[in-house]
Amino acid sequence: MEKTQLDPSNYFNPPPYRRTPPPPPTPTSPRLLHNLPRTPRKFLQTLLISALLAFAILSHCGYIPTLGETLFGLPRSAAGDKVGVKDGSKTVKKVQLEAHMMSKCPDARDCLRDLVVPAMEKIADKVDFRMSYIGDVDPDDSITCKHGPTECLGNILSLCTADLYPTTSDNTNNTKISLGFTTCMITSYPKIPDRSLIENCALEHGVDFDKLNGCVSEEGKGLDLLKKSVLRSKQAGVTRSCTVRLDGKKRCLRDNGEWRDCESIRGKAEGSRVEQLVADVDMLFERVNRALEPAIEYEIPDY
User: Fold this and answer.
1) Do 71 and 221 form a contact (C-beta atoms < 8 A)?
2) Nearest 5°: phi and psi at 265?
3) Suppose 159 and one of 7, 54, 225, 302 were both cysteines; which one would form an S-S bond, judging by CB atoms 3.0 to 4.6 Å apart?
4) How far does CA 58 lie from the centroid of its chain?
5) Which residues of the chain have pLDDT under 70?
6) pLDDT at residue number 292
7) Could you give the CA distance from residue 180 to residue 147 in angstroms, rounded to a whole number?
8) SS in 3 state form for 216-280?
């Protein structure tokens, strides 16, 4: 058998006694680095060493970068860590803020008007806000509300609005819709559930009245939302309207026309002040998102 002549200009030289050169190594080949020309091989070795060094430095500082961050300077969301809600190209984790109340309670009106709404005007993009309702689930699975069936209906109207306009990463304005509608309704709580009141509040805050009426009228839908909400309040140990919870902990209570048990997370008895609530949310938001800061970019020299 005739030997083939070796071509010194070819990096993948065929061995003797082979008439055709072997295929180029695949990316999964364990000897890929050794089969590359000297200059590209040196570049990849330098890149790998730089990446490992950067990973070691950042790990020592308490920040664990992902592979995409270390090698290519990708932001954490692009590198695969999907925590919280996307805000543009940045991924953020929001702070939990919740108001437990009764729709026909004057303390709920004061709570929304004097604390929740003014604070939400400044922190809406930093909190995951929820309104939950207080009541009792009877043995026959029916719901009892303190101020009667009309209060249950007011609670359902609020919950249906939040269900029709859920807050998502693409539309954070929906919180303003549901909170605005509920505040409008509870401001005139003695009239709940008067049709003219509900229609005016729906019109003022961009709520589709027909869809809202459909949610309330749909068999099982509204009652199911109310039952889940009441059970949530019970699981949280909340029995008084209006109770505000921040980050899963009791923040403040509005009861019988007075603020009670209101402490900020700094231990000061100022939890009912709008400015203090905003400051505490800002601090919590910064704390939970500190690990989600953009990755440090590294310059790799050209060879």
Assistant:
1) no
2) -70, -10
3) 225
4) 26
5) 1-48, 50-90, 169-172, 267, 291-303
6) 57
7) 22
8) HHCCCHHHHHHHHHHHHHHHCCCCCCCEEEECCEEEEEEECCEEECCCCCCCCCCCCCHHHHHHH
Would you call 107 exposed, middle or buried from its count of C-beta atoms within 10 A (0-12, 13-18, 19+)?
Answer: buried
- Residue 91 zone, left/alpha/beta (φ > 0; ψ -120 to 50; rest): beta
pTM: 0.67
